[in-house]
Design brief:
The chain is mainly alpha-helical. The chain has helices at residues 20-35, 53-64, 72-78, 101-105, 110-123, 137-142, 165-177, 201-218; strands at 47-51, 86-90, 154-159, 182-187. The strands form two sheets. The protein has a two-stranded parallel sheet with strand order 1-2.
């Protein structure tokens, strides 16, 4: 497809709890923005994507490039010379706190609930973190606070059988209320992260949909950020 891909590592919970992973992601984004051209990439056409836990991280990164949170590592992303042109969070766990919300919505198997609780317990620190919104990007967006600069377009693919389905629905509704371009696609009766299973027809369709959305997003004008706080130009 002609994309240059940077695929990153980040520190993992429970050894490294929030916000270690997101700090790594924000600093990696700044590195991409500063160095992509050295590898033949166009830094004005950055797209960020991740699945499952990665969907949480790229959603939070999208927020960090649009809202100023005031830490060295979030400012590294916010003050990057370019904003992302699109965010693709696939099959995401978009709120790590409150795992009981899944049981309140409908009955789920005990083993699945235990897995979700394990994720929450492993990722979140024992005490509430000042930037806990970035562990729960859908909750942050549901507050409806206007960003310092426009949020990028979001493409939100998920299966209707995915236990995390409701997080995607909430994210789509929150972005709509903020007037952000957001497209959610729901693929019937597929497993979590089904798009990795390329032998399945709906996985191939999901990739076609993601590429089509990305092409539309890249066809719009980019935002180039001036080297001044809270200033940008189109």
């Amino acid at each position: 497809r002609g994309f240059l891909v940077f695929n990153i590592n980040y520190r993992l919970a429970p050894r490294h709890r929030f916000p270690a992973a997101l700090e790594d992601v924000c600093r990696a984004y700044r590195w991409f923005a500063d160095h992509a051209a050295q590898y033949g990439g166009d830094p004005s056409r950055l797209v960020i994507a991740g699945e499952s836990a990665g969907a949480n991280l790229v959603s939070a990164l999208g927020l960090a490039t649009s809202y100023r949170y005031g830490t060295a590592w979030t400012d590294a992303a916010f003050d990057a010379p370019v904003s992302p042109r699109a965010v693709l969070p696939a099959c995401g766990i978009l709120q790590v706190s409150d795992p009981d919300r899944f049981r309140r919505r409908k009955k789920i198997p005990g083993w699945l609930y235990d897995r979700i609780v394990e994720v929450s317990d492993a990722y979140l620190p024992g005490e509430k973190h000042p930037l806990s919104d970035l562990a729960d990007p859908v909750v942050a967006l549901e507050r409806g606070e206007q960003p310092a600069r426009p949020l990028p377009p979001f493409f939100l693919p998920v299966s209707t059988a995915d236990p995390l389905l409701d997080d995607t629905r909430r994210m789509k509704a929150a972005l709509d209320r903020l007037g952000v371009q957001a497209e959610a696609r729901y693929y019937p009766k597929e497993p979590h992260a089904f798009h990795a299973l390329l032998f399945r027809a709906q996985a191939r369709q999901c990739w076609r949909d993601m590429f089509a959305f990305t092409e539309r997003a890249l066809a719009t004008p980019s935002v180039v950020v001036e080297n001044q706080p809270n200033r940008m130009r189109w």
